[in-house]
Amino acid sequence: MERPFHAAGRSNAVLLAVGDVGPYYEPVADYLRSAGPVIADGDIRFAHSEKLFTTRGSMQVHSDGHYTRQHPSRAKIFAECGFNVVSVAGNKAMDWGAEALLDTIELFHRMGIRTIGGGANSDEAHAPAIIEAGGTRAALLAYTCVLREGYNATSHTAGVAAVRIQTYYRPIDWQPGTPPAVVTIPDEEDLHALAADIKKAKALAPAVIVSMHWGIHNIPRMLADYQRIVAKAIIDAGGDLILGHHPHIPKGIEVIDGRVCFYSLSHFLWSQRRIDDHVPGHLGGHRHGVVHDPAYPLLPMGPDAMKSMIGRAVITPGGIDRVSFLPVRIDTDLRPEVLRPGDPRFRAAVDHIEWCSEELPHHFACDGDEVVVSAPAA
Q: Are strands 129-133 and 136-144 parallel, antiparallel or unpaired?
């Protein structure tokens, strides 16, 4: 379906991007009734894989990822959704060791899906996927800021592309026991490597799109301070669009020097399973003081876990021409529904993202089903 805002005769490609994918339910056909035709309209269709798909590997002793490995047959959800590029740079990617990560990457490749952000060594993990479509091309890179020690790829070991973060706690009050300020600082060496990757990718394609697995679970609107530092570094290096995920709830959108950063697209098709008498994610929510919606027992990421979005960008030979998002609501059967103007939930969803973005430079304008993102007026 051609969009009316495409200039006549102009070559372009459409990127459609979602956040975390990795549910425990199947089949998925019924889950795509609303969102499937929308995703199919994209030339570049991106998602982040939250699970490992293999029967091999061994759970790492410092991991809590006993629920993150699935049978390879479950990976077909990515093909059924039509995704053609997938990030594997996540906090669970090495929970079952290098063997499981490499099996997962190989499985995606056999399905005709490009992977970014992971590999047998750092060269593979940092390599971009170059996608040609609509008379133009885009380079996609992926990184994670949330990872266990040893999960990052090196010159001689498998793993993920990472921007590691140091966390410090600074007292802000003289009274003992007062909660401190949490200070997060990106690793300088990793930040330089990220910038170098982007500059190399920019020589290969007019648009460089960077996937970032980062941020804070459960807590609405809150960003870690390292996120804005890393986002600015990406844009300064030549990145044209940032696709954030990991918090499992939507976060704000910022326009940095004319380029858009989605701090969190939320999840799209995702769930946790019940283990004995609990769902693992409930514990993290309780630590953050978040009250989970009982109507969503398998989306244990707080009261906003049913809110999501699809990021959209038009890519021309000159770069990215337009960025927007489509509001999505996940129903109690865990099906993502693309909301339409005229539905009161559409306006409520836009208002929520506006609230999340309140302290970030941005401007939203509704145009049909889309919410167009641009820089604020001077």
A: antiparallel
CA–CA gap between residue 102 and residue 167 (Å, rounded): 30
Strands (E), 191-318: 207-213, 241-245, 253-256, 259-262, 267-270, 307-316
- Domain 13-374: which CATH number of 2.40.10.240, 3.50.30.50, 3.60.21.10, 3.40.367.20: 3.60.21.10
Cα–Cα–Cα angle for 249, 250, 252, nearest 5°?
140
Phi, psi torsion values for 373, nearest 5 degrees:
-105, 130
Model pTM score: 0.94
* DSSP letters for 13-33: EEEEEEEEEE-S----GGGGT
4 — pLDDT class (breaks 50, 70, 90): very low
Q: What is the pLDDT of residues 133-172, one digit of tens each?
A: 999 999 999 999 999 999 999 999 999 999 999 999 999 9
- Cα separation, 320 vs 336, in Å, equals 26
Say if CB 258 and CB 266 are below 8 A apart.
no
The mean predicted confidence, pLDDT, of the chain is 91
The answer to whether the CB of 128 falls within 8 A of the CB of 155 is no
pLDDT of residue 7: 35
How far apart, in whole angstroms, are the C-alpha atoms of residue 292 and residue 282? 7
**pLDDT tens per residue across span 92-110:** 999 999 999 999 999 999 9
For residue 259, what is the DSSP state? Answer: E
Annotate 321-346 with three-state secondary structure. Answer: EEEEEEEEEECCCCCEEECCCCCHHH
